[in-house]
Specification:
five-stranded antiparallel beta sheet; 5 helices; 5 strands; elongated
Length: about 170
């Protein structure tokens, strides 16, 4: 991939509008094996091993391969790669903490004004009721805020502060 990026950088700097100068890069992209499938686009599309033009001049290419076989294998590889990606993604996600009625929370204000000194979070709120799909009905503990609201994506919960412990 690094070679492709370097090649793209050279082409981008060269302001030539001649399309033939881009063919070598296109050939390189089409003959580079994908990590997900294990095959190059040329192998999957036409059943032939692709090669960079310089390599093609030095050696004789092998016979065409069975496209149906490599496509079936590519589907298996893509499924395996997809499950690995999902495992990696899920391992980095924060574990959802289920909140109960009576817990105190604040949440991030998505519609903040542009003033950088405005508070980033609204609250405090007390959870009145747990709703479906990680949503909560909240009761405001601060004057000047709506009394009840339904909200998802609670940002932070904390222990009961002394001023609200009554």
């Amino acid at each position: 991939m690094r070679t492709l990026k370097d090649h793209l950088a050279v082409i981008a700097q060269n302001q030539s509008r001649v399309w033939i100068t881009k063919l070598e890069l296109q050939c390189t992209i089409n003959s580079t094996k994908s990590k997900a499938t294990g095959f190059s686009p040329l192998e999957l599309l036409i059943g032939k091993l692709g090669s960079v033009p310089a390599v093609e001049r030095m050696c004789v290419l092998s016979n065409p391969i069975d496209r149906d076989t490599i496509r079936a294998y590519a589907v298996i590889r893509m499924t395996e790669q997809s499950s690995k990606n999902k495992e990696r993604f899920d391992s980095k996600c924060a574990k959802l903490k289920l909140l109960q009625p009576g817990d105190f929370v604040v949440y991030k204000d998505a519609q903040r004004s542009s003033n950088k000194l405005d508070p980033k979070y609204l609250g405090p709120y007390q959870i009145v009721k747990t709703l479906d799909n990680d949503r909560y009905e909240l009761r405001s503990l601060s004057p000047g805020q709506k009394k009840n609201r339904n909200i998802s994506r609670i940002t932070y919960s904390w222990l009961v502060p002394q001023q609200y412990a009554e």
